[in-house]
Design goal:
about 290 residues; Rossmann fold; 11 strands; two-stranded antiparallel ribbon
């Protein structure tokens, strides 16, 4: 199979993977209206990475507007769109937060913001003339007030699991949810750097667990998850790990080849991904606390 040109791979009777080397507007054009339950992506930040051509901020915003409009068209009426971005660096090294710049484009398409999620990580470039960047944002939008949200699927351990009501009619009863707590809108998840088990040649790779939380919370089994800036396929991996369909595209054939390799490794049981429930490494604890 020529992975760069073969776009459809049926894993079993329940779900499929579709990945193409293709311009994202061309790829989106072939998708029917309202057929995608979740869009998770991280577009280029227009900072000159090797997979992007740096443009003026005005042209960048215009390109994003066209992609966002098509994404809204293919999004299911009860679906969610999650746009993960960082900062653009402008003239005089001015920091321009892309979530602030792009937010009006989503509002122009009548989307409703549900959360602005802060993804915090502890490793990255060390800056000399400003504080080092250690977070990015995920803007979560829906089309309507009626949307999928499976909170129980992504609860995390309660900080005080044995805490009880100290007064009132429920005095003495456990006061927290036995399934755990809401993870909140600040997520501490390691980014994919040199020693991360998922690391490939992609310079800005999604950690699978970041996408998994969105997949589990915002879709049901059998739903379809799309990434129009697919990279090496982490969004598709997160989808098929949880019995969803996964699809997407990228213009770099080497990335799509790697995405197919990773899908094959997952199917063979050899793909390494960081588990969602693994604690953050703490050098002060034996074995890093893991």
């Amino acid at each position: 199979m020529n992975k760069s040109t073969s776009t459809l791979f049926k894993l079993d009777a329940d779900y499929t993977v579709d990945m193409s080397v293709m311009d994202n507007l061309v790829y989106l054009n072939k998708i029917p209206d309202g057929s995608i339950h979740l869009i998770v992506t991280s577009p280029p930040y227009n900072i000159g990475k090797k997979y992007e051509k740096k443009a003026s901020l005005e042209n960048y915003i215009a390109d994003q507007a066209a992609i966002i409009k098509e994404c809204v068209r293919v999004l299911h009426p009860n679906g969610s769109l999650c746009w993960q971005v960082g900062n653009h660096i402008g003239p005089d090294k001015e920091v321009i937060p892309l979530d602030a710049v792009l937010y009006p484009l989503f509002k122009d398409n009548n989307l409703i913001m549900r959360n602005r999620i802060i993804w915090h990580f502890e490793h990255g470039l060390h800056c000399k003339y400003r504080f080092s960047g250690r977070y990015e944002t995920i803007m979560w939008f829906t089309k309507s007030p009626d949307y999928t949200f499976n909170l129980d699927a992504v609860r995390v351990p309660s900080k005080y699991p044995g805490k009880k009501y100290f007064k009132g009619p429920r005095k003495g009863q456990i006061s927290c949810n036995p399934l755990g707590k809401n993870p909140g809108d600040v997520w501490v998840i390691p980014n994919v750097k040199a020693n991360h088990c998922e690391k490939t040649i992609h310079p800005c790779q999604f950690p699978v667990e970041l996408v998994e939380r969105l997949v589990l919370a915002l879709t049901n089994e059998g739903d379809t998850v799309l990434d129009p800036y697919l990279g090496v396929g982490s969004t598709v991996i997160a989808a098929i790990k949880n019995n969803r369909n996964g699809c997407g595209c990228d213009t770099v054939s080497e990335y799509i080849d790697l995405a197919w390799d990773r899908v094959s490794q997952y199917w063979e049981g050899t793909l390494k991904t960081r588990p969602m429930d693994r604690p953050i490494y703490d050098p002060t604890l034996p074995g890093g606390g893991q």
